[in-house]
Hints:
Layout: H1 2-36, H2 51-54, E1 56-66, E2 72-73, E3 82-86, E4 91-97, E5 117-127, E6 132-140, E7 148-156, E8 159-168, E9 171-181
Amino acid sequence: MAKGRSQKETLLAxxxxxxxxxxxxxxxxxxxxxxxxxxxxAEQPLTANDSSRFIGTWDLVSVEAHWPDGHVTAPWxxxxxxxxxxxKDGHMSALLMHELRNQATRNEVxxxxxxxxxxxxxxxxxxxxxxxVSHHVEATLRSVESGTIDRTYEFKSGNLYLIAKAxxxxxxxxxxxxxxxxxxxxP
Length: 187
């Protein structure tokens, strides 16, 4: 009988070791998957190499003004044209305007809209820790875009969100500019 218990105890011990080994293997596989399976590009956490995510050409999707009382407006219309370019060597350029300011449409532009455009170029730096991209302006159409322009940034769903703090009509306002990667357009 003592021998039977010993075999039973040995069998239980062997099974426990097998289950422990199996758990260890499964945990190892899970750890490897969590470590090596890449996140989608659009949802990657912000890292020290965020500057590489800026590189390329971006088309403007929208400009929204978020006011202190909570309401949101589209000061440059529903489809404002714009292009933002970041190069590998640290250069950038931006041109954006009110949707009715675009003279490429061959429509006459109202005098009130003549200043509803922004255009500048220079260099840029990215502070990934603070989530700020700085545009160091070398030339601009408007003096308000002189010097260094800091924008809070976020990459979300493949888009680039730039947030600018400003004052309009003597009120603080946050402008949210949404950009998408430009696609090649054949005329």
